[in-house]
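R.M. (postdoc): so does anyone remember the format we settled on? I'll just put the structure tokens first.
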């Protein structure tokens, strides 16, 4: 009798193992963990392409995998619809980036806003960056066009650099807008020290793929790398609403 019970338990355990192995979520996670044990997987779900699963990583990055986890694809997934090619990967990435960027509290940014903003952009900036300075000279024009400008920090040379120290002085100033104006005009700010979100924002920028400054994130999560003239940028930003 004891042998029968033991056999029954073994069969039940084997069935459970088979079910678990057939679970795409677990199979894909196991395969990806062999590639990178600490891979930051946020979610796994069926993609619009039959038989292919979409793996969402931290920072909005996307991978694709077979249900059994034996095949992994890194690249863009397009859908041809009504004679047009839609980049589904970029859509998913932008949605994820928008969620992360738009959740940053205003208290952790330096914000230049018009009275009645029509949209907003979030700019990863470095005060030592020439094109960041050029973009900042057009913030008033962007405001007049209805675009709110939200600055987050991205010291290109890393934490501890001159840019990071200047950004710290901006974030620690009583009047952040005034300090940002002076820093972007290449005025040396008094050294300051306080608790800031600069390191966290720098890490977020790296995670979502920021490689230089200015990196402009539209309200829908689309990234525009580099400087754009105010009129052109406002048109794109308003069109993304």
């Amino acid at each position: 009798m004891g042998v029968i019970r033991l056999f029954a338990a073994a069969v039940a355990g084997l069935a459970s193992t088979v079910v678990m192995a057939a679970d795409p979520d677990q199979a894909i996670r196991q395969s990806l963990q062999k590639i990178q044990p600490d891979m930051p997987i946020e979610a796994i779900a069926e993609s619009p392409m039959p038989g292919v699963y979409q793996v969402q990583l931290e920072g909005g990055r996307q991978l694709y995998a077979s249900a059994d986890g034996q095949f992994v694809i890194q690249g863009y997934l397009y859908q041809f619809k009504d004679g047009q090619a839609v980049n589904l990967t970029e859509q998913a990435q932008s949605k994820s980036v928008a969620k992360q960027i738009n959740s940053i509290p205003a208290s952790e940014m330096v914000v230049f806003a018009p009275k009645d903003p029509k949209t907003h952009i979030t700019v990863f900036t470095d005060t030592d960056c020439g094109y960041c300075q050029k973009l900042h000279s057009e913030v008033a024009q962007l405001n007049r066009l209805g675009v709110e400008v939200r600055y987050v920090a991205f010291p290109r040379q890393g934490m501890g650099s001159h840019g990071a120290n200047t950004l710290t002085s901006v974030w620690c100033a009583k009047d952040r807008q005034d300090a940002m104006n002076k820093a972007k005009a290449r005025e040396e700010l008094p050294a300051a020290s306080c608790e800031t979100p600069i390191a966290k924002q720098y890490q977020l920028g790296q995670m979502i793929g920021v490689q230089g400054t200015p990196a402009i994130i539209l309200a829908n999560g689309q990234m525009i790398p580099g400087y754009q003239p105010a009129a052109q940028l406002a048109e794109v930003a308003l069109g993304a609403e």
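R.M.: ...and that's the designed sequence above, right after the tokens. Also worth knowing: Residues 1-21 have pLDDT under 50 and may be disordered. The CA atoms of residues 160 and 224 lie 27 Å apart.
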